[in-house]
Amino acid sequence: MAMRQTPLTCSGHTRPVVDLAFSGITPYGYFLISACKDGKPMLRQGDTGDWIGTFLGHKGAVWGATLNKDATKAATAAADFTAKVWDAVSGDELMTLAHKHIVKSVDFTQDSNYLLTAGQDKLLRIYDLNKPEADPKEISGHTSGIKKALWCSEDKQILSADDKTVRLWDHATMTEVKSLNFNMSVSSMEYIPEGEILVITYGRSIAFHSAVSLEPIKSFEAPATINSASLHPEKEFLVAGGEDFKLYKYDYNSGEELESYKGHFGPIHCVRFSPDGELYASGSEDGTLRLWQTVVGKTYGLWKCVLPEEDSGELAKPKISFPETTEEELEEIASENSDSIYSSTPEVKA
Fold it and tell me: To 5 degrees, how large is the angle CA 122–CA 128–CA 134?
């Protein structure tokens, strides 16, 4: 029986959403942080998209955002030449790390003791968060602004991407191990620890490489320019989105396109699977985040599968349900969401 994909729309941002990241699974579920050009990164409950709080303090567009594994700390990278570290429970700013140019990327080590930053000044910086007054270690070698930098191989190595090059660095010696060159601009990079897989998008290509050797594993071509792609935690599927406003879902093993649908009212800038693989989130030029079910029709989070009566001729479709919410209130919520893509950000901290 056919099932219709019904996404949850998370409004609140007022400008394009350019980055997002999930925490690991904690005793309180998992969490989602979004970076936006409005300068106000937001924290949400990961499985429902419910707004928890907004981190206030940046004076420019926020280009990168991440959470540590247990969702106790957040880090953000911004156009105000700073990276900030936050208490993700209270929303308090813990430290501001000054840079000499726009910061694009932030990433915690697994123990949350170090923060890796990168940006337009072409340098990788490693900050000891237990010694915020100490100067960071710096790694040079990129020839253009760095778009993404990630810890890999249990924090023993670093992956970084600039315009057309991906580089692998040894943390201990601070030296380059290997590099990959592309004939067009790299638009995104995701690291999958289980299996040491690197997901790179450039043009219409979605490429998979070994994060240890940078050797190619496989690649797929999409019908449009892709800005971001994500691999399912169990490596069953991959999802991708880009310039044609659509989301594409592929079988990772065969490369077969399983689904594609209009995802947003603007180009999709970022897409990521949740840590349990049950959903994926997308962020767009239209200022919204949307959550999508990996397996349509499952009862999960706010989705509740409601089958039509037999012989009605209707397609089965998942129904979004809210606890203790009447049908009239649901209709009102749906009407409000359809009337406006954007809504003002609540001016409170997380």
Answer: 85
